[in-house]
Each structure stands twice: as structure tokens, then as C-alpha cells.
Amino acid sequence: MHFSKTYARLLLTLPPELRENAIQYRQLKRLINQIVTELSSLGLSPALLQELISPLPAAPTDVDDRTDQVSLADSESDTSEVLPSDIEEWFKTSGFPKVVYELSGSSTNILPQLRLWVSVPEPKHREENSSSKPLELESDDEEVVESKDCFDHGQEGVTHTLLWSLQQMQLSGAPNLQAITSGALSHVTGRTQEVVVPLIHDTEFFHNLSTALSSVSTHLTTIHAEFRSTIQELSRTIGDSAQPASVTSRASFHPHSRLTSHAGMIRTPNRESNKSDLFSWREIFQLYVEAEVFESVGEQTRGELTVEESEKRLKNFAERATQRGLGDSKKFKLKQSRQALETFLGLNLFILNVKKYSHANSEAVRKILKKHTKRTSLPLPGLTSEPDALSPQLTALFAQMHTTTLPRTMVQAIGETLLPIIPHLDDYSCLICTSIAFKPIRLNCGHLFCVRCLVKMQKRGQGDCPMCRAPVVLTANRSNVDWALLNFMQDWFPVEAKEKLEANEKEAAEEQMRELGLDPDKPCVIM
Questions:
Q1: Is residue 137 within 8 Å of residue 124, measured between CB atoms?
Q2: What is the pTM of this model?
Q3: Could you state, in order of their start, the residue ranges of all structural domains in the chain?
Q4: 85 or 31, which is more confident?
Q5: pLDDT computed for residue 525 by the predictor
Q6: Lower Cβ count inside 10 Å, N or C end of the chain?
Q7: What residues contact residue 494 under an 8 Å CB cut-off, 6+ apart?
Q8: Could you write out the DSSP letters of every residue in 117-155?
Q9: Do 208 and 325 touch, CB atoms closer than 8 A?
Q10: Above 50 in pLDDT, residue 425?
């Protein structure tokens, strides 16, 4: 299927605010057809341009008085330009004029033009009296032919120069460039003329493309600002609906302190409050992190995912959340939580649409520039050669195409603003047993472990820290309890902390039985 149809179908799947600000691919294609028509009217068909066009040679150092630069945009101008010896030699031996495609102006006003060198026949007649500006010719005697002789179309017997013919072609659509140059080549006299031909429809093409890219960039900036505002509001909503035990159960929550508490006597009752959806939100965010919807953190697949893969993973995340009953009244106790979940899913779907939109626009620009080069045979500097050869105008134009970074910025905003609202259990786990490090012991080296793992290390006589090998394990005691972190875990992870305490107590009781010679796995026998 042609890209034009694929692109149109893709835009139909996007929201109206994105679809209306996309690159108008078909309109740019029509302008390319007009460029081809304009070049053909000059006698420069794509096949002929392929034979004539070449990169611009290096600037010369010596001045050659036989070269004149004439701009069709200004018939009054008479500027002398230096003709490199290699161009003149090439012209004499090849039988064709030299043509160079250039882009001047700025990124917002690119002015394409053709610069060509052609042979100009010597005029047979000239008049001495004329008020027009004279045109310099090659002559040791400083002979000049006044422009009246060269531009007087009605004067009988006058042989018109190429300069006159080109200007008549520009003004009145007289003989095309191919016919003019063909006639001129049969009268090579050694005098070479440089001509600059501005391309009207090519200028319109780049103007429309630059305007479209600027509009896309402005729209994406607005989208990003609105996204940041929405995610800030969502973070406040989730924060209010996922409050810890110290807020929802203030009467029963008592922080511990080394001055008033004994670490071995701490108990954590289950304080799951009816006023908080903390546990449901933690489960949702855990599923979201595991889904890796937009970026993978695996060693083999690390990096940004494709649009297709992101769409697939977002769908799987929604299915897993539904299967666990997240979002209904059984899991979510607060109405605002259910609304916040819908907003969260909507933000991820919007990121996916922006990702589609950005990639589609970038591909549309790449395709239209490639089509421009193929249809017109006008090589864009740096597009068909090394990227380092990009002209300043194209470099600035392509800078507006870097819209694919916005989806990644949005994903980072979720990871930096939204997900940290709910503390993640893995951030507070023991590095030895990998479960929550409740009753955390911070060694003198600064590393943190749960009390049960350190007690077992001390019993085995292992005195070095598992992380840095510092000899600090055997010297650890109850003064190494991190009371602030203990209160934080009891506040945000009351269920997990209770489960860890019960598991520690069970394991300690089994060890004591084995030390007494009893097997905890066998039933009790009373003699």
C-alpha cells in the first residue's frame, strides 16, 4: 500500500486535535508535481537534470573577467562572479552546461535556486548610444555591448544573447532553457555565463513544509504543558486516596523510638483502613512497572519500544488489572480512586497516540523529501550523501523534526512524578532474603539488612558485610536499629511488615527446637 494511504488511515485513528495538526502529505505531493512542471517549462526535465546537476565546486581564488553572474530575479543586476578553472574546462569538454542546486535563506524561508554555467555567443551588432547599463564582454579592448542591443527584441538583424533569452523566458515565457542552451552550445566562443534561476514552486514547497513542522512543534509543546498539568492533578488525587496508616488510623498508630521501645518486643497489627486504597494502588503500579509498556529495562531489549510493541503491552497491562479485579468497587473503596484509574489509563493511551503521531510525522517528512529528490532530480544537500554535508537551512529544518522525544519525556514524567507517590516494596527489601527488611539493621558501613539475616550471620561467625566486606557484622547490636526507617515501613507497609515479623518468629522458634534436639516438622509426642 502507498504511504499516502497508510498515512491517511493512521491519522484517522488519532484524536482530532492531533489529526488536524499533522503534516499535509498529499498537499506537499501536489507541490512536487508543480515543481516538476516548472522545471519542465525551463527545459530541465528530471532526466536532463540528472546529467547536468553536480555538487558546487570549491570557491576559486583568481578572478576571471569573462564570467558574469546574472540573476533572473533582477534583470538590472550585473554582478561579476569568479569562474573556477575546473568548471570552464568541464564545460568545454562535456558539451553540457554545469548546473548546481542550492538552498539559500533561513530555515523559515528557504530559497532554492539553480546555478548554471552556459556558453554565450558573441553579439554581431551593437549600438554606441544607449542609456541602459552596459553588459561586460570578453575583450582586451574593453569593448561593451549596451543592454539595449541585447534586449531589443524588435531590432532587425540583432543576434540575441543567452542573457536576453533567459530574461525573456522569465518575463514572457519565450524559448525554454533546453532550446536556448542547445543553440548556445553550437556557438561556443570561450565566454561563459553564470545564471541563477530561482525556483518559485520549490520555494513554496519548503515554505509549506517549514510552516507545517513549526505548527507540529508548537502543538506538541502545548500538549506537553497540558500533560504535565494533568499528571500533577492526578498525583494529588492518588495521594489523597492512598494515604498511609499514620493518616487513616491515627488513633492506633504509635511510632517507635529507641528511648521508649524495645526492638524485640515490636508488634505490627494489620491496620488496613477502609479510608485508603493504598494497597490497590501499589498493586496497580507494580503491574505497570512489570509491564514495561513504553521502555524495556532488560539487558537484551533495553531501550524505547516500537509503537506496535507498546500498544500490545498496554493492552496486556489493562487485561491483567481487570483479571485481578482492580478498579471495581471490591478493590477500590473510594470513588475518586476509580476515576483516577481511568485518568491514568487515559494518559497512557494518549502517550501511545502521541508516539504514533510523532513517528508518522517524521516518516512523512522523510518520505516527502525522498520523493522530492526522486521526482525532480534535485539533490538535497546531505539527504542523499553524508549527513555532515547538510546545509544550514536543512539542518535547522530537520531540527524541528525531533518530535519523537516527547513520548519518552511523558513516560519519564510518569516515572518521576506519579509512581513515587506509592513507595515501592523493592526499594525497602533486604539484600539477603529479598523480602521487606522490617526491623532494619543499619551496619556501621551504612548498608541495610533485616535483623533475622544478620542474626543468622552472627551465629555462623560471618563478620564481613555482604556488600562491602567491612568487618562490621559481629559488632552490630540493638543500637544499629534504624528507627526512622522502621516507623516508615510500619506506616506504608503494615501488612508486609506483619507477615515478615510472623515469618521471623516462626523461623526463630524452629531454630530453638533444633538446638534442643527436636524436629519441628514432626508432631509433638507426650511421654
A1: no
A2: 0.71
A3: 1-121+161-242+277-420, 427-515
A4: 31
A5: 58
A6: C
A7: 245, 268, 269, 270, 271, 272
A8: EEE-PPPS---S--SSPEEE-S-TT--EEEHHHHH-TTS
A9: no
A10: yes
